[in-house]
Each structure stands twice: as structure tokens, then as C-alpha cells.
Amino acid sequence: MVETVERTDLHTLPLAPKNPLPYRQQLKAVRSFHSGLETLRDAGGPVTRLTLAPKWLAPTVVIATSPQGARDILGRGGGHIEKTRVHAEMRHLLGPNLFDLTHEPWLPRRRALQPMFTKQHVREFAGHMAEAAQTVADTWTDGAEVDLDTECRKLTLRALGRSVLGIDLDAHAEVIAEPLHVTTEYITDRAMRPINAPRWLPTPARRRARTASATLHRLADDILQECRADPTREAPLVHALIAASDPATGQTLSDNEIRDELIAFMLAGHDTTATTLAYAMWALGHHIDMQDKVRAEALAVGDHELTPDDVPALRYTVQVLHEALRLCPPGAATARMAMQDVEVDGYRVEAGTMLVVGIYALHRDPALWDHPLDFDPDRFSPRNSEGRDRWQYLPFGAGPRSCIGDHFAMLEATLALATVVRCTEIRSKNPDFPIITPFTTVAAEPIRATVTARGGRRR
């Protein structure tokens, strides 16, 4: 866990420089969490300041797209830097969870849940990951055109349900997908507006969001109660949440807290991994030589269903996923609030400022990466990774509040990608992979590809 040491002479540091773009361009750019932050970086440098409204209406915004800036923002522990308005909106609608809690209640929750998500423990969650990928690939007609985005969402939903929740989520696809979309859209919309209607006012959007939240909570409660009624039910994440306790106090989670964490896990574990897989498959569909390397690697481990024991032999597959995560990170940006004056990459940032780490812009910065727009998995080989700044590659965030599910996500994606590619050749039809960032990074349109059966386990 990294924590930045605060300088004692903060008052001697200059404020972050104002961004020179005209106001309308700044406003347009800040609403685009991916390419817009690149625009602001190119105009104002790796640390730049925006004043979009009077302070009583909206906070000053400082955007950092440098490794040191990211470290100074995300590496701090304690309550110096807190979660932002979007997290408050999420807490209010979906409930307090590990993603949106403020520091004081977050700390015991993180202590309780951390043992569940170590690299060794998440192997227990892998029971049906490869099987889910295989069953999706088996539905593809030889020579058919598919939408990689839709298929990868189907795959991750199936893996999430069968591997960790003990439920067939195929039958609940609409119950999950639409409510998640409605709630995240509502949360983001409220967080981005300087002025909102009060929460007690029953607007149409609020009614839809509350209905969607209630639907998700009912599903989470059904899953939890079924696992309580049947301790032998194969649902490792749910049973782990039931058994979890804070090692410092022995306090276990209430049913409400477990339900809130299940919803957060469904939110974080569905769109994000699906988009990463879709991007990786799309890229391999344009680089058949790379696809052949993934296939050869997957075939070399044998004709059995892939398991976590095979992952050490899938090194190039992991490199492909790292490159997909670099070019299409699940969180294009992450935000915090400065609760006191802090230093960010040599500049003083005043208390009350919103701090934004532009991860997408950081990952594509030509000052940090050679040929940054090229898809090149070899940049993540052990040799080429030597000496790289830890803080220039942040697909799962970093610091004390980094994504707790990073090992799970990588295990799921590795087994799924290797399983699909060893039995299918993918030829991408879309020349590019357009993205939007309504909450997490997702495909902006269908990602078309032609799939052809190859060797491997596909029958």
C-alpha cells in the first residue's frame, strides 16, 4: 500500500496552471472521460486546472495525467483525499459498498473483504469460467458474423453467475443489464450536473432509478437467502461474504451490507471484463499473427478445459489482455476530492478541489509510450516492462483504494480469451473500436466479427 508523504512547505508551491482552452471546449472535454482528457492534457500539460463555475456551485477541477500526479492523488491513505459526488450518488441509490464508501467506514470493510480477493483465493471462484466461454463459443455458427460486445457480455454474465453467485444469470440477463444501465446513467447524470432536483422530488428519472435499484436488491437478496438456506450451494463469493469478518474487530457483514456488495460486484464484474475481452478479440481479429500466438499457447497446455493451473503457461495471452486494458481501460478516469491542501506533481492543490486522474490519457501519452496507439502486446513482456513507472499503467487504479477484484478479473479474462481463441478464428470487420464512458468504458456500437471454427475443444 503506497502513501504519499505530504510536504511541509505546500504554501511555496505554485497552483496548477489554468488550462488555456476556451471555456466551451473545456466544458465539452471534461464531459468526455477518455478522449476529452487527452485534449485537456495536450493543451494544458500533465497537470492542469479548470474553473467551470463559481466555487459555491461546482468545485475547481485539477486533472493529472502524469505518473507522479497519479501517485500523489491515488497513493494517499487516510482521509486527506476522499470519494466524490458520483460516489455519494451511488451510495444513496445502490447502498454503501467498497467502491463508494468514505474512508472511515471503508477501512473495516476493506479489511474484511481483502482476504477473499487474494491471488490464491480467487482461484476458488474459477470453477465455471472456461466452461462459460466454451458454451458461448459453441453457439457460434461456423462462418457467422457476431457482435463481440454482445457475446462477451453474455460470456461474463454466465461466468459471474455460475462461478461466484451460484445462479444461472442467463435467465436473469434483462433483470441485471437494464437496471444496471438505468442506475449508472442516473448516478452519472446527477454527479455531472452542478444543480439537481432534491432527492425527495419524484421525477420520472428518479422513479426509474429507484425501481431499478429495488430490482437489483431483490435479486441480490434472493441469491443471499438461497445460499443461507443451502450452505452447500456452489456460490463461493456469497459464502465468502457471509463468512467475512473484520480481523481487527471480528465484526461480520449484515445482510444489507452483503446485498450492497453483491450489487457492486455485479456492476464492476460485468461491463468491465466484457469490454476488455471484446477489445482484445477485436484487436486479435486485426492481428492474425498475434491471434495465432494466443491459439498456439492455449493448445500447448492440452485439450482439457482450462483452469487456473494453466495460467502460468498463458503468458502471451496475459500480455494481450494487458495491452487491451492499456488502450481501453475499464475506468477511463477516476476522481477524488482534496479534503486539505495537497501536492500534485509539484503543484499545490487547494482543499475542496476535485482531483481527476486521466487514466485513458495516461495510457496513451506519447511521452510515456512508444507508438502509443499501436496494439503491441510485446510491450508487456518481462523484458520490455523492466524499468516502467508503476504509475503509468493503472487499469485497476492504484494505491489503498485500488480495485479489489483485479486478480479475479485477470483470471476470468485470461481463461475466457484463451478458451475462445483456441477453438475459433476471429476476423474483425470494424476498422476501429469506438467507446463511450457513461460510467465505465463500454463499446459505443456493435463490434462485428466473422468467426470460424478451428482446432481445440469446440465441437
TrEMBL record:
Gene3D superfamilies reported for this sequence: Cytochrome P450
Metal-binding in keyword set: yes
Cofactor: heme
Keywords, sorted A to Z: Heme, Iron, Metal-binding, Monooxygenase, Oxidoreductase
Residues given in the record as heme binding sites: C403
Protein's UniProt keywords contain Heme: yes
Domain of life: Bacteria
PROSITE patterns named in the record: CYTOCHROME_P450
InterPro entries cross-referenced by the UniProt entry: Cyt_P450 (IPR001128), Cyt_P450_CS (IPR017972), Cyt_P450_E_grp-IV (IPR002403), Cyt_P450_sf (IPR036396), Cytochrome_P450_Monoox (IPR050196)
SUPFAM superfamilies: Cytochrome P450 (SSF48264)
One function term, GO molecular function aspect: oxidoreductase activity, acting on paired donors, with incorporation or reduction of molecular oxygen
Similarity comment text for this entry: Belongs to the cytochrome P450 family.
Protein's UniProt name: Cytochrome P450
Organism (species): Mycolicibacterium pulveris (Mycobacterium pulveris)
